[in-house]
Give the backbone structure.
Amino acid sequence: MNRDPVLHLLGVARKAGRLELGEEPVGALCRARQAKLLLLATDAAPNTRRRCIHFSQAGNAPWLELPFTKEELGFSLGRGSCAMLALSDAGLAASLAKSLARRDPKYSQTALPLQEKAAKALQRQRERRRHEKKLQAAGKKPWAPPPAPPKKPPDPEKPAPRRGKKPGPVGRHLSGKLRHNP
């Protein structure tokens, strides 16, 4: 079976849980600013294209039109059809854009910034691991809030505070009847 590398990467991203399918999940991912790349089918409706551009601006993520139809995307991802997708992993987004750029140079202007973002994310991940290893080697635990101070025993000379509702005032209800709040 001759499978396209772009569709293969999308399948890997879906299995890894880093791919959202459909307008609602993509919109939610963009609003949470977790989307790294939005993808659109070539035969997507004009309204879907408009929403994709809006999501892209809201989530500060680039968008690309894929050279596949809704049916081709849906078939490769195990659905009937799919017009809009979003990747939430910077490394997978960079790999996909690089694969698209090899096929067509018009994708290269999006691929380069995504590769830079992926490299920065990988560097942050390595630094975090190094820091955790240092803490583990030193026998220190990551920061945690200090324990609460111990409670003092009640003073036997002081009366215990009253718990519950205080009696309310006596007054007239809207109906004119006398009321008393116990």
The mean pLDDT is 86. The first strand starts at residue 19 and ends at 21. The helical segments are 5-16, 23-31, 46-59, 70-77, 90-103, 108-138. Strands lie at 19-21, 37-40, 63-65, 84-87, 170-172, 178-180.
